[in-house]
Design brief:
This protein is an alpha+beta fold. The protein is 25% helix and 9% strand.
Length: 429
């Protein structure tokens, strides 16, 4: 069976592990009548690309040595500047991956594309707003015509405790040896914006000015598992990867630190949308009346909205110890997109001195996945966000949200977010 792991990390069969604010998560039946993951018509960008190819509306171009990579990125509107490079052997193409031949990962708000130099196929994942991540592979055959094939054999790896028991993706930090093999005895970490930086990016390359930031990137463990685990003391800033290994064939020589931080925030955000949306749909289905939170569903909606709102507002984000700066152009490209208010402000603007975003509310609030959440969950999430942003909720975890922050976020949302509840008004306290 192919083990198609799209982002860095080992996966396990267990589906009850610690994750975020939850003690455990359990698998949700993909064939539940309210879910039907395998049988519902998919609505994701890769499936739409297949349709455009079949209609002759898109013609992917093959070029060596990347194959269809550049053409696929253009067709899916995935920026080259988003490239991340992972050198741990954590893909079904692991025999080709090493510190001298890392895997490239590119992403936008709903699609992830993986490429291995010399590999026979592209790896693709695309978020269906209702159903979560759909997984595909596309053969790198110059004879064509190319087609992205949905492969259920990916699901044993991508539906696990690490993905919150739903089809999802992972951001994992590992201890790699000199060949990129994971030394599992030293431990591994699932990471997002709440993780200590000293546990992030093991097995990944990191480029850019990282200031005093200590992390696990750019390093390998020499001598095997008997050595002490790396703690980031030896991590040296890299402006690019030229000279670190032969970068011929790669679209850029960067694995941008800003892109890494955005990616790990977004991967958990996507998994939350799927997991919490599924929980509510299943609970409402069990109550026998779709669309109304009754009985068990009341508690599910309340707990899910709290978890979702807190993560969207970066409630437990680890602060930056010093300024960081990318070198790939990703920050400029990313912040140029998305809606802006009349003052030119956007939820995609970066801070990068104290924290990731200038206005700490996730840009994923504009995503189709957020809009596709069950109405009860979405309404409760908005209500929870307003209690926090208005100052009514003043828990310790929200101390980093100043009055200026909260006021700016509400003002931006009022001008840029469609169907925002009318009770989002001027913040005065």
């Amino acid at each position: 069976m192919r083990r198609a792991v799209l982002v860095s990390g080992l996966t396990v069969a267990a589906v009850a592990v610690a994750y975020g604010n939850r003690a455990t998560v359990s698998a949700i039946n993909l064939d539940d009548p309210t879910i039907q993951y395998n049988t519902r018509m998919p609505h994701d960008e890769v499936s739409y690309l297949n349709q455009r190819i079949e209609r002759g509306q898109v013609h992917l171009q093959y070029e060596r040595p990347q194959g269809y990579l550049r053409s696929v990125l253009e067709a899916l509107d995935v920026p080259v500047e988003s490239q991340l490079l992972v050198f741990s052997k954590t893909s079904f193409q692991s025999e080709r991956i090493s510190p001298t031949n890392p895997r490239s990962i590119f992403f936008n708000d709903s699609v992830v594309v993986g490429w291995v130099r010399g590999g026979p196929l592209l790896e693709l994942a695309a978020e269906d707003p209702r159903q979560g991540m759909m997984f595909f592979s596309m053969g790198q055959n110059p004879a064509g015509p190319p087609h992205a094939n949905r492969d259920p054999n990916c699901l044993p790896c991508h539906v696990s405790g690490e993905s919150m028991g739903v089809p999802g993706t992972l951001m994992r930090s590992v201890y790699p040896d000199t060949d990129g093999k994971t030394i599992s005895e030293l431990g591994t970490f699932l990471t997002d914006d709440r993780s200590p930086f000293t546990q992030r990016w093991g097995g990944w390359y990191v480029t850019g000015d990282t200031g005093t930031l200590r992390h696990m990137g750019n390093e390998v463990v020499k001598g095997g598992k008997n050595l002490e685990p790396l703690d980031g003391d030896e991590s040296q800033p890299l402006s690019s990867l030229n000279g670190r290994f032969d970068t011929q064939g790669y679209l850029t020589p960067y694995s941008d630190v800003v892109a890494l931080m955005v990616f790990e925030h977004q991967m958990h955000m996507m998994n939350l949308f799927t997991r919490l949306g599924w929980e509510v749909r299943v609970a409402e289905g069990e109550d026998g009346e779709e669309g109304q939170a009754l009985g068990k569903a009341v508690k599910v909606v309340r707990d899910a909205s709290r978890e979702l709102a807190d993560y969207m507002l970066f409630a437990e984000e680890k602060p930056l110890p010093s300024k960081v700066e990318g070198t790939s152009g990703f920050a400029d490209q990313f912040s140029s997109e998305g809606p802006k208010d009349s003052q030119g402000r956007s939820l995609r603007q970066f801070d990068l001195e104290r924290r990731l975003m200038k206005y700490p509310c996730s840009y994923m609030i504009y995503s189709n996945a957020f809009d596709a959440l069950p109405d009860d969950l979405k309404d409760a999430t908005y209500a929870r966000m307003w209690r926090i942003l208005s100052g009514e909720e003043r828990g310790k975890r929200y101390a980093g949200l100043t009055l200026e922050d909260r006021r700016a976020i509400v003002e931006i949302l009022r001008e840029t977010k469609r169907r925002l509840p009318e009770y989002f008004q001027v913040v005065t306290r």
